[in-house]
């Protein structure tokens, strides 16, 4: 099925390096400064061949919560975590000598945060757990949060105190407010593009300690939502709230969200613009925390998808185990320009079961697994793709996995729950097999293992690899790797000595 990545706006300006004067890379505002949105910081681009990094303080965290909060692991050289050197050497060993690494905003980049709420009405604590404990560290001046999140956290604290809302007590299982998710949308078409990021609006999702909206303590929930909207909504002096939602959760486990959601105030639809298209995200949907870095990665990914290719994306898009993503998928497709002629479908399924059924019929495969990496069954399917292709060809008519006598329950459920936009895949198209595998990784260790497994089978070779600084202040990097079918052309060794012709 063709999955179309659209470029409806010009690409961003070229990335510049971090090796500039200290006045070009502005440090974040001081801890004592009031919450405000800083001017946009320059984008950063690094490669293995770049000059040595600048003095540490030019790209330092400057956060008062460092070492007490579990969010960031290092203070200096945010533009180039040490793991980049390891990645550079690893890719050389597997045939890629031109690995690149891009870093965008170093502060104020996080547009999505899940924060625990503990303490008391007089002194609410909103933040992250201290490393190795369930003690919440209050982080009101977090340097990685988009400034609108910090401002919304302060507003929420005021509401908790004024309305006497009881933060959750984990030991007793009592209290009202357990967690809050804050997501920033920077896609406001009423503003010039240059002003949209710094004027981002926050979708606030309150995780309430009750079964549903009919529980006795939900009157206080509505009062808190009204307080946030009255003091941060469009009619307030500081308009920073997009909407307020409630999630109901009473479980004693570590799962943040329950299954029941309710829209309370503000806009219902939450939009972001990434990869050239508008994306709809429900509060229950997974969304990338670093919107700008994700946009940069998607625009690079587009270059590796041939025009008109049939694409299977085994991550969030069309083959998804989260049933709530269906509505977001339909809304996103509705916003595609009319000039786009493509076939896109959505399926509620687990691709670890019979993955070849999903791989077949695609020219390009896009995988974006969780931190643990690809499921073993998918890795095995990719390693044996050549033999699977031969087997499918010899029995295409009698034992097609897409035939009308399909009896596998998970395939039947996926078919029943599917959404088809545009024409369905033709029988001829369904016989194709992917020639390109695009792997988006957020787990470096698992990616290395998956990469070694794929290459050892000789079914794939690694053509390109790019790294992205999705989480400045940590040793995590996002990797975009492009694999091609087959072993590839062996690289000629240059000896530097010309041999004399034999007479």
From TrEMBL:
Keyword annotations from UniProtKB, A to Z: Methyltransferase, S-adenosyl-L-methionine, Transferase
Region described as Disordered: 27-49, 390-409
Molecular functions per Gene Ontology: RNA methyltransferase activity
Active site: 442
Binding site for S-adenosyl-L-methionine: 288, 320, 368
Signal peptide range in chain numbering: none
Domain of life (superkingdom): Eukaryota
Keyword hit for Isomerase: no
Listed Pro residues bias regions: 27-37
Family matches, as PROSITE patterns: SAM_MT_RNA_M5U
Thylakoid is among the record's keywords: no
A single BP term in Gene Ontology: methylation
Sequence ranges of Low complexity compositional bias: 38-49
Protein family per UniProt: Belongs to the class I-like SAM-binding methyltransferase superfamily. RNA M5U methyltransferase family.
Annotated protein name in UniProt: Uncharacterized protein
């Amino acid at each position: 099925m063709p999955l179309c990545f659209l470029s409806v706006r010009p690409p961003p300006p070229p990335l510049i390096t971090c090796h500039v004067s200290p006045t070009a890379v502005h440090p974040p505002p001081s801890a004592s400064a009031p919450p405000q949105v800083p001017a946009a910081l320059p984008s950063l681009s690094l490669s293995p061949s770049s000059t040595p990094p600048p003095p540490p303080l030019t790209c330092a965290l400057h956060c008062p919560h460092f070492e007490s909060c579990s969010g960031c692991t290092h203070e200096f050289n945010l533009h180039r975590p040490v793991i980049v050197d390891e990645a550079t050497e690893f890719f050389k060993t597997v045939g890629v000598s031109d690995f690149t690494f891009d870093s965008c905003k170093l502060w104020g980049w996080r547009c999505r945060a899940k924060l625990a709420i503990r303490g008391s009405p007089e002194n609410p604590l909103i933040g992250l757990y201290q490393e190795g404990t369930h003690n919440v560290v209050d982080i009101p001046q977090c340097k990685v949060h988009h400034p609108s999140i910090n401002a919304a956290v302060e507003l929420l604290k005021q509401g908790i105190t004024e309305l006497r809302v009881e933060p959750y007590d984990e030991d007793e299982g009592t209290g009202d407010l357990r967690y809050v998710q804050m997501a920033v949308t920077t896609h406001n078409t009423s503003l010039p593009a240059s002003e949209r990021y710094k004027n981002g609006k926050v979708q606030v999702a309150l995780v309430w300690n009750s079964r549903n909206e009919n529980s006795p303590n939900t009157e206080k929930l509505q009062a808190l939502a009204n307080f946030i909207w009255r003091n941060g909504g469009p009619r307030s002096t500081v308009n920073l709230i997009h909407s307020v939602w409630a999630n109901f959760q009473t479980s004693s486990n570590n799962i943040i969200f329950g299954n029941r959601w309710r829209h309370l105030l503000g806009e219902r639809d939450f939009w972001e613009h990434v990869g050239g298209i508008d994306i709809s995200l429900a509060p229950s949907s997974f969304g990338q925390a670093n919107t700008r870095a994700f946009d940069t990665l998607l625009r690079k990914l587009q270059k590796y998808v041939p025009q008109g290719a049939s694409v299977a994306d085994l991550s969030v898009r069309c083959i998804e185990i989260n049933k709530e993503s269906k509505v977001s998928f339909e809304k996103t497709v509705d916003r595609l320009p009319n000039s786009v002629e493509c076939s896109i479908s959505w399926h509620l399924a687990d691709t670890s079961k019979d993955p070849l059924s999903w791989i077949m019929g695609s020219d390009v495969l896009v995988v974006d697994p969780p931190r643990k990496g690809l499921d073993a069954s998918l890795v095995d399917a990719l390693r044996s793709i050549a033999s699977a292709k031969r087997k499918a060809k010899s029995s295409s008519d009698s034992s097609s996995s897409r035939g009308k006598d399909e009896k596998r329950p998970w395939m039947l459920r996926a078919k029943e729950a599917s959404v088809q936009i545009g024409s369905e895949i033709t029988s001829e198209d369904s016989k194709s097999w992917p020639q390109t595998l695009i792997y988006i990784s957020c787990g470096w260790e698992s990616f290395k293992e998956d990469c070694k497994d794929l290459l050892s089978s000789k079914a794939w070779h690694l053509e390109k690899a790019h790294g992205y600084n999705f989480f400045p202040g940590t040793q995590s990097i996002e990797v975009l790797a492009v694999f091609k079918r087959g072993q590839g052309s062996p690289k000629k060794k240059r000896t530097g000595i010309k041999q004399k012709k034999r007479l």
